């Protein structure tokens, strides 16, 4: 309780909560209408005597009473008083930290706070709960049911969660709670990574409903194929890069995507309506960039192009001042910024980001959310008057927005539209990817102060406490670059041919209606039947089984190292371990021709557009052209060698893209190579397996290549960038597969068929098939019939059940 002793001897009582900080005591009344009282610690012996201060000509005297805790508070105040007497800021900070650690060591988690009396605790440790501009120390406890955080000062009360998503940060753990939990999302910072890792182990072991954050590569694949939106993908990337709404110095960063804030209508089909996402904010204005580069070239080490960052606590609160005024007042010593420097207009802010000499800020997630309160002065704050005399009230919106909700709706449409979907990967390269650092960052004009990068300065090596505190303060206030997630170019999103997200529906409908109805219906029916077949791949029904071979079945065509049937159904082509390719006439029932074109076993063959593609263990892939007019005639055929592709190891498998312009090959040493058919030089090459690659195959849209190998891995590679974007570890070696870009049907060493969901990296169904390894698989174009062959010398016919 607080008593006002200045009212002519009367005691006026006000109840509330007392907060003891490192340099002051704060009394917060229960009545929100009454002002908060902040009392700075003074260098006197009696710290609990009635406190006096002068307000104008009036002297006011207060007395604080804390029932039952007076002695404890006196000890804390005396310790803090001794700390405040130290001359150096670093020494003061160190002593305050020691006081805090000492109190934490003498306390433990109050197990009376468990939700259930039967809960069994597994681990307890000290941590800090991070919220904007404040860290609250306390105890974390994990039980077999819940995760608890109990602040040392009992404010707020303990939190518990039993269904959540966890993101592991550098020394922290972020917990995202469901709507049914009794707490909001919390961000825990630990004093050691060992304790953080141990707690995470117990979470994964005992909390059955926990969901771990997926990898960046997994989210990339989901985003590429349209399973998550641009907004969701950016949120996931921010989480993975240690950005949190609970930490203003590492707040999630989102891009400006619209550049038109003056038109009465927003045209999302016009590229001129959008910002160039391949450039950082500071490089969008050519004249300003030239001035910055001139300064950069003349600057002594360390070089940097921009004197401010694109995300900092000041910039975040610049946008959020109307809904979080307390944070702005805390950051700016109890004052709002000058009225003309506040977030007054979206158009003015964008213009300043383009033209200002020190303004390079991006946006925050709220600009693409559904809560427009940050654009309105709903609290009736006195934010001052501008030079023109007008009061700072609601944010001025572009002419194309009728109100704040309409503004956010159109911002969301812009973020998800065709243009942004096709170019968002370029912005990701700048913020989270390979253009964030090094020579690529210099070339992209994307260089910030070294202090802003993770690992840019080793604070632990700074011995002087004052310098260390100053450095940490500078890093926190200046802004921090997200943790780098990608070191190679980010692949582009797979976008539909037409996107009905325009702000002008009539224009979109004209585009869609321009497609031929008959062509659209035919394509839709074909694609729909394939989708239906793949959605029922886990319901394969055995149609027939035939044991008609003396040895293992190694290839299927509707058998040798590989075989295929030519389009006229009259010739079967077989490759052999004796270095040859054989042509068999079905009509005459005999071998018609032999191609002797390799110096080692011919491992795989492919036929496309009257050309034969052969892969061999002699480390080459060759393309042959049939010279005869009719290869099915009973005559010997001449083949001319058109091209030869050299490898460093024996080639075990190959595949052609659906368009026939790209070639993918896999070697016995685990190297995947992508070739342009028209060039002898590889486009991309990477070692994606630790042993022999059994099979490679393009996705139907030619965007990805899936490969399986001796290392029991399924690997997805991006065709455009050559980037390895997903690796799935199987329980056993997979020998062959078919896939539609999302779902995989594979055959393994045990003889089972497995249906995989690549987006979740999990087997969703297993089907018993052969009594030994499944060695080959064939699927018809409609995806309605599957044939498998194995070492048990059988071929099995399958059909999905609808």
UniProtKB/TrEMBL annotation:
Q: Does the keyword Repeat apply?
A: yes
Q: Name one Pfam family in it.
A: PH_FAN
UniProt-listed PROSITE patterns: BEACH, WD_REPEATS_2, WD_REPEATS_REGION
Which InterPro entries is this protein grouped with? Answer: BEACH_dom, BEACH_dom_sf, BEACH_Domain, FAN-like_PH, WD40/YVTN_repeat-like_dom_sf, WD40_repeat_dom_sf, WD40_rpt
Per UniProt, which keywords does this protein have? Repeat, WD repeat
Top-rank taxon: Eukaryota
Q: Where are the WD repeats?
A: 595-625, 644-685, 686-727, 767-802
List each copy of the BEACH domain by range: 208-493
| Designated name of the protein | Neutral sphingomyelinase (N-SMase) activation associated factor
This chain's source organism reads Cyprinus carpio
